[in-house]
Design goal:
Layout: H1 2-17, E1 27-28, E2 30-37, E3 46-51, E4 59-63, E5 70-74, E6 80-86, E7 94-102, E8 105-112, E9 123-129, E10 137-140, E11 146-151, E12 159-164, E13 171-175, E14 182-186, E15 195-197, E16 199-203, E17 211-214, E18 220-224, E19 229-233, H2 240-244, E20 249-251, E21 259-264, E22 270-275, E23 284-290
Parallel strand pairs: 1-20, 6-10, 11-15
Antiparallel strand pairs: 2-23, 3-4, 4-5, 5-6, 7-8, 8-9, 9-11, 12-13, 13-14, 14-16, 17-18, 18-19, 19-20, 21-22, 22-23
Organism: Sphingobacterium humi
Protein name: Esterase-like activity of phytase family protein
């Protein structure tokens, strides 16, 4: 465990020294507010977060590897409200969560994409309509879950970050452990297939990306690693490749213990983060309001 943490620290240090990481250095000011503490024992290794489309002021979250296939609904104080288990799904390493709106309905995308040893033949996505709250503990039936297999175009790799672009309706994934984190895409909402081959879009000028999100209207993109938050503003209908080829902005960010989750907070000028609970430390739900460029 110590060796792994030292390796993570070394990678982040190398990223900070990498001349490519100096591509975009303007710092956007932000005000951080602690709005809740995730104290429920089930919320012990949170790795992804999105705002609920059906229930304003609430968030969907999930745990990291080692947990079963399930999602939790928490309120704005990070209190556990509901738990939903995914019937028939055997999760290996769920690392992120995203949302997409199709035909007037809100859908959740749960990403089983973690692969620390880069040995998986394929990775998995589970897509299902945002559930309606009926019982505190409930199940999403297998028939309501679309299972999708993804393969990289060259070799297996680790990833922890996804989002779905509301402008082009494409699914995007960002690799983690490559020297330059790489953006991949797949047209999973344009075809009803069960498996897709990811396509490489571009390389990013930093490494170890642990989370990403896109604004509800597509007007901005967030990415983070353990120490930095990166932001790109986007013009209306601007292709994503064009956006991410531009210099990014950094947003003032206070490092969390194993902070691996980020999401826009239903506006394009605020976002939330939440972290795991390493060594028994508390995990807090933070809201950041930042000044757009």
């Amino acid at each position: 465990m110590l060796t792994k943490k030292l390796l993570i620290g070394l990678l982040l240090l190398l990223s900070s020294l990498n001349p490519l990481a100096l591509w975009g250095q303007e710092l956007l000011p932000a005000v951080r507010k602690s709005i809740g503490k995730a104290s429920h024992p089930a919320l012990n290794e949170l790795s992804g977060i999105i705002p609920s489309g059906r229930y304003p002021g609430k968030y969907w979250v999930h745990n990291d590897s080692g947990d079963e296939a399930r999602v939790f609904l928490i309120d704005s104080l990070a209190k556990l409200n509901h738990e939903f288990r995914l019937a028939g799904v055997q999760a290996r390493d769920v690392e992120d969560i995203a949302w997409v709106k199709k035909d007037g309905k809100n859908y959740i995308v749960l990403a089983d994409i973690g692969d620390n040893q880069a040995k998986r033949k394929d990775i998995s996505l589970y897509v299902f309509e945002e559930p309606v709250l009926r019982r505190k503990l409930d199940t999403i039936p297998a028939a309501a879950i679309r299972s999708i297999r993804l393969q990289y175009p060259d070799k297996a790799r680790d990833a922890e970050a996804i989002f779905v672009d509301p402008v082009d309706q494409q699914f995007y994934l960002i690799s983690k452990r490559d020297f330059r984190s790489t953006l991949y895409t797949a047209a999973i909402f344009q075809a009803a297939k069960a498996s897709f081959r990811l396509q490489k879009v571009l390389e990013l000028p930093f490494t170890f990306i642990t989370a990403a999100d896109i604004a509800a209207d597509g007007s901005g993109i967030l990415m983070k690693n353990l120490t930095q938050v990166y932001y790109w503003p986007r013009l209306a209908q601007e292709p994503l490749r064009s956006v991410l080829n531009k210099p990014y902005f950094k947003i003032a960010y206070s490092v969390e213990p194993q902070g691996e989750a980020i999401a826009f907070d239903r506006t394009d000028s605020s976002f939330v983060t939440i972290s795991e609970r390493p060594f028994g430390l508390d995990a807090y739900l933070y809201q950041y309001k930042f000044t757009k460029p």
